[in-house]
């Protein structure tokens, strides 16, 4: 059974668009993927679960994973030491603040000293709402309702208007996911 490629199914989008024929199924599926990518780029919300890697030049005081949701047990950190050898760093903790996952050294620990070169630190994590191996019902339930509705609005906008300004209704629904410093 094929899984979901974005926060909603083609059938869900067609119902919202009031499309009854299969003529536009491929186009609608493409628009769902485009909408999911826009939502990820603007809000950091990842639809389909995948592994991502981030490279940093140095360890920050508090490292924020810039996508959500994050599978906390999947986080790994490696760094290039002063001798030019990659080392694993496991003495860290992760926590969630306002939906965002942060990583810091464990209590009483410090970040290791990484080489002073670009991309010396690599953080790998699994991110995304939808487990591609789950049933379609479980996949649909994994995505928050506001994200699904925002995706419907964005697909409608792309389908009926083929561009133009980003719909305010999408931002109204999911702007609260944007990262804001406290």
Main-sheet strand order equals: 1-7-3-4
| Average pLDDT for all residues | 92
Count the DSSP helices: 5
Can you summarize the main beta sheet? 4 strands, antiparallel
Please indicate the count of domains: 2
Query: How far is it from the N-terminal to the C-terminal residue, by CA?
Result: 44 Å
Helix coverage percent: 25-40%
Structural class by helix and strand composition: alpha+beta
Radius of gyration: 19 Å
H-E string:
HHEEEEEEEHHH
Can you tell me the overall shape? elongated
- Approximate strand percentage: 15-25%
Which stretches of 5+ consecutive residues score pLDDT under 50? none
Number of strands: 7
Describe this structure as you would to a colleague.
With 182 residues, this protein is an alpha+beta fold. The chain has two domains: 10-47 and 130-177, no CATH class; 50-127, no CATH class. Helix content is 32%, strand content 24%. The chain has five helices and seven strands. The protein has helices at residues 10-17, 25-43, 136-142, 145-161, 168-174, and strands at 50-56, 63-64, 70-80, 86-89, 92-97, 100-105, 121-127. The strands form two sheets. The chain has a four-stranded antiparallel sheet, with no helix packed on it. Strands 2-6-5 form a three-stranded antiparallel sheet, with no helix packed on it. Helix 1 packs across helix 4 (145-161), helix 2 packs across helix 4 (145-161) and helix 4 packs antiparallel against helix 5. The longest helix is centred in the first third of the chain and has 19 residues, at 25-43. The radius of gyration is 19 Å and the shape is elongated. The relative contact order is 0.23. The mean pLDDT is 92.
């Amino acid at each position: 059974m094929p899984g979901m490629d974005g926060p909603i199914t083609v059938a869900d989008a067609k119902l919202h668009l009031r499309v009854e024929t299969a003529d536009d199924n491929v186009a609608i599926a493409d628009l769902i993927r485009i909408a999911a990518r826009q939502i990820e780029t603007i809000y950091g919300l990842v639809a389909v679960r995948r592994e991502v890697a981030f490279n940093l030049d140095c360890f920050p005081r508090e490292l924020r994973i810039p996508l959500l949701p994050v599978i906390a047990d999947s986080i790994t950190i490696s760094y290039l030491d002063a001798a030019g050898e990659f080392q694993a760093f496991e003495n860290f903790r992760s926590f969630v603040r306002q939906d965002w996952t942060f990583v810091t050294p464990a209590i009483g620990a410090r970040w290791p000293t990484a080489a002073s070169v670009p991309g010396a630190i690599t953080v790998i994590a699994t991110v995304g709402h939808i487990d591609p191996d789950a049933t379609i019902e479980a996949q649909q339930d994994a995505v928050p309702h506001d994200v699904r509705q925002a995706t419907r609005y964005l697909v409608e906008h792309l389908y009926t208007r083929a561009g133009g300004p980003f719909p305010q209704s999408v931002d109204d629904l999911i702007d609260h996911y944007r990262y804001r410093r406290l």
